[in-house]
Specification:
Molybdopterin biosynthesis moeA protein, domain 3; 470 residues; alpha/beta; 28 strands; Molybdenum Cofactor Biosythetic Enzyme, Chain A; molybdenum (chains A, B); molybdenum cofactor biosynthesis (chains A, B); disordered N terminus; 17% helix; homodimer
Amino acid sequence: MTEDGTDRTVPGYRDTTALDLRSGTPVRDVPSPSPAVAGAPVHETTAIDRGAVPPPPATAEPVPLRSVEQHLDEILTAVPQPDPIELAVLDAQGLLCAEEVVSQRALPAFDQAALDGYAARALDVEGATPAEPAHLSVVGETVAGPSGPASIGPGMAQKVAAGAMLPAGADVVVPVVWTDGGMATVAVHAGPLAGTYVRRAGDDVAPGTTAVQVGTPIGPAQISLLAAVGRDRVQVRPRPRVAVLSAGSELVEISTPPGPGQVVDVNSYALAAAARDAGAEAYRWGVLPAEPRRLSEVLESQLLRSDLVLVAGTFASEGDPVQEALAALGPMQFSQLTMHPGPVQAFGRLGPDSVPVICVPGEPVAALVAFEVFVRPAIRMMLGKRQLFRRTVQAIAAERLLSPLGYRQYLHGQVMRHPDGGYVVEPLGDGGEAMLARMARANCLIVIDEDVTEVAAGGLVTVMPLLLGG
Amino acid sequence: MTEDGTDRTVPGYRDTTALDLRSGTPVRDVPSPSPAVAGAPVHETTAIDRGAVPPPPATAEPVPLRSVEQHLDEILTAVPQPDPIELAVLDAQGLLCAEEVVSQRALPAFDQAALDGYAARALDVEGATPAEPAHLSVVGETVAGPSGPASIGPGMAQKVAAGAMLPAGADVVVPVVWTDGGMATVAVHAGPLAGTYVRRAGDDVAPGTTAVQVGTPIGPAQISLLAAVGRDRVQVRPRPRVAVLSAGSELVEISTPPGPGQVVDVNSYALAAAARDAGAEAYRWGVLPAEPRRLSEVLESQLLRSDLVLVAGTFASEGDPVQEALAALGPMQFSQLTMHPGPVQAFGRLGPDSVPVICVPGEPVAALVAFEVFVRPAIRMMLGKRQLFRRTVQAIAAERLLSPLGYRQYLHGQVMRHPDGGYVVEPLGDGGEAMLARMARANCLIVIDEDVTEVAAGGLVTVMPLLLGG
């Protein structure tokens, strides 16, 4: 096999079991091949594992080879945006506004005092100083709240609380500290210009102006604004409904102690949690039934009720019943990706409504990596978000990192701030630690590009922090 | 009044309406005091507003003066942590684990192949090379899934898929690429050491070891691990139940067009959204009734059902019915804080269960600032989070910022990355824009400390980015 793939036996296909024959050293926990065969390049297959994920299995059926970018592009191009729906403002929290919210009201609705003081006529206080105060008759007091019409004439003032309606005739509010605080008459020590400390009707939002624009994420401040203009419901981009299913004859439900050869269905839980974290309304269906007719029924019913269907499974063997059931529902493209871990991935739009279906590997670590790389951006696109991808940072690798040529590798790591600025990342997994436990300790994915086979300790590497909500 | 407050008329009290007499220039939208009084320092009161929030109102009753830190300390010291509860693992998402989860199971539960290949005895393949392969009889095939007992003897191999049970007698898996891929007999081209590509029972998690520790935030990776060890429920720190109430005779429900002097209840919506964003289970009660008996009933019933009660209101006037109703339920301390906006804040533990009650200002911008400063850390403490406060960054001020001496000021701003590294922050609000709309455009709070009165354009200032979930 050459780097340009000219000796591929099937066009577009490359046996990825041989992907790691070129670079690297054996990982610590896997015994090295015996010295007798140390010269054989095939033995360096262990190199890229780092104890984490075995090389991709040789599949019986060659599947097309494609890059991470190609697969992601296909998904993001094909994923539809669900139609906007109207929700109560509190239910709209975290979603994107899907309408131009124009205020029918003025905010504030009436001229009001901006602070506690005396509503007065600017003319009456013009030129007042502490030495030569203006004296006004206090004709009443208004606090915030519903109030009838009030007015003042020349030489009069009304005591007002912040937020209280301004009496007709008044055009200025003199703060208490600029007066002697008098009750029957007040001595005013300053002559502010007309309009000072007055909030005019519509100053905040004028009727007919846009309060919240299309595409604005709705948070507490937007809810505040929507409520203020009298909107208790708002059109938003809805949370996509994501059904999460697991496939595999080895799977048993979480409450069933696994028998010989069986493993607990981990992925439907983990992927439902990840989908919810990404903003979806996730529905965990669980383990797909083995019986072909029932299997098809489940898939069809999930296509009817979902905006996106997510299936985790191995899909490696010939005659896989899930692959066959999916194929019967529409064009489903299984691909061998130039990606580590989890090279076998699939995408299609199935059923009468062409609902997007994404298949991710069954191995739990590979499943969550695939979720990060392909599913999370798709869910964010369905939510209408502009920023589909997690922010990445460049970090200093604390250890040497190895990666197979031609493959994009994702490693779990712990990224931390460097005392001198910037970031340092430590790959997780010295091989002696559990795969799932290692993933649970990670706070980032280290991304090593296709054309990089080695990052020296101290070299820069791309890191994708995995921040969860809260 | 002097800086050290020696001329306070009441001990611990300082008339905060005069807080801004020392520094600054008038804001753009508020007319300057007339030239006739330009020399009077009182006129510079307009300086700190920046069009955003008027100086704190003079209250009829002097209330104690305290710092932001003092008030926050009192709240965080008094806030209890709700008892752990057991939830289904998917409902535990985003919460902190409150138990030491010890695995009763081994992961994997059985010795298994780490990749597709041939299970064999290391002795039989020792020293094999492509030139001198070892020939083995293939006695069967095992795929992933439930399987009965199988075994191999000397000179035998079994074809195995990744995840399949290893037959008894086998101690190595030879990857397909290291063989001729034979079906009846297989020629093995390498002699890996015993244990190569074998995942032993318990390698991932051994029985009796801790899978998830107390205090671990539960995300998709932890849910994956919990499911793998057979846990469908887990003890967590629960979301605190937060009741959100608004107080004020001027308030009407969102669906009611406000009459003269009335305003829509914005805070119960905005604060419920903020509480939920902070991780609470928020319950929006709405506007408190005016009738004293009914008011007390509502407060009492909310104390019974909540871990924290949040009340937004102005609380400035004498004989405020809400203040009186609160006082009847326990010690409620109203304080004048050295804080802008929203100096009047309160905290107490009321009712038979001493439920914490936090009062924040009624002005919607000040209410959400107070939420950020006092309520969000309290909710995070109740959730058991170690990190109570938002991360702050230092940013270059794009404009000159003014702040009253002795007061900590919070300004809404927009922070962005500087092309040369670091951050730049622009204060929001040229005065011509709505207060609520300005807050809705902000992505950070600018925090100006008590002893700072001016930050020059280009100077460094502390910024608290307001990230929402997703």
